[in-house]
Amino acid sequence: QVQFVESGGGLVQAGESLTLSCAVSTSTFDNLAYGWFRQIPGNQREMVAFISSGGTIHYKESVAGRFTISKDGGKNTVYLQMDTLKPEDTAVYYCNGDFLIATVFSGDFASWGPGTQVTVSS
């Protein structure tokens, strides 16, 4: 089973940047599509960034132009560079992936990693 471990969260002020990392334990890293998701307590988990195995990228409108998703097959790691952070970006951030793009967009995964907390103060 593929495992995902997120890191890099923290407490920052509005306007600052953070880079999240997601270590992926799999021998098929390059064949998966990946998404970064976030969840605020009491709300549904939402996808904020997507990258396909071929490098096609998609962002949630509210983060487009501020967040950048990337991946490194040599390190089995998916990244989320977050710039110009806003208080409304405060959430627990998760990554996940699958061979099927539809699964990533649906967020319907059997398991999730621990996530990493991002808190943006105003």
Verbal overview:
The longest helix is centred in the last third of the chain and has 6 residues, at 101-106. The protein has a six-stranded mixed β-sheet. The protein has a four-stranded antiparallel β-sheet with strand order 1-3-8-7, with no helix packed on it. The chain has one helix at 101-106, and strands at 3-7, 10-13, 18-25, 33-39, 46-51, 57-59, 67-72, 77-82, 91-98, 116-121. It starts with a strand and ends with a strand. The protein has 122 residues and is mainly beta. The protein is globular and about 40 Å long. It contains one helix and ten strands, in the order βββββββββαβ.
Which helices and strands appear, and what pairs or packs with what?
Elements: E1 3-7, E2 10-13, E3 18-25, E4 33-39, E5 46-51, E6 57-59, E7 67-72, E8 77-82, E9 91-98, H1 101-106, E10 116-121
Parallel strand pairs: 2-10
Antiparallel strand pairs: 1-3, 3-8, 4-5, 4-9, 5-6, 7-8, 9-10
Stretches with pLDDT under 50, minimum 5 residues:
none
C-alpha termini separation? 40 Å
Count of alpha/pi helices: 1
Major beta sheet, specifics?
6 strands, mixed
> How are strands sequenced across the largest beta sheet?
2-10-9-4-5-6
Helix percent reads under 10%
Alpha-beta content class: mainly beta
Roughly what is the average pLDDT, rounded to an integer?
Answer: 97
Rg estimate, integer Å: 13 Å
Beta-strand percentage range:
over 45%
What keywords describe this structure?
122 residues; mainly beta; six-stranded mixed sheet; 1 helix
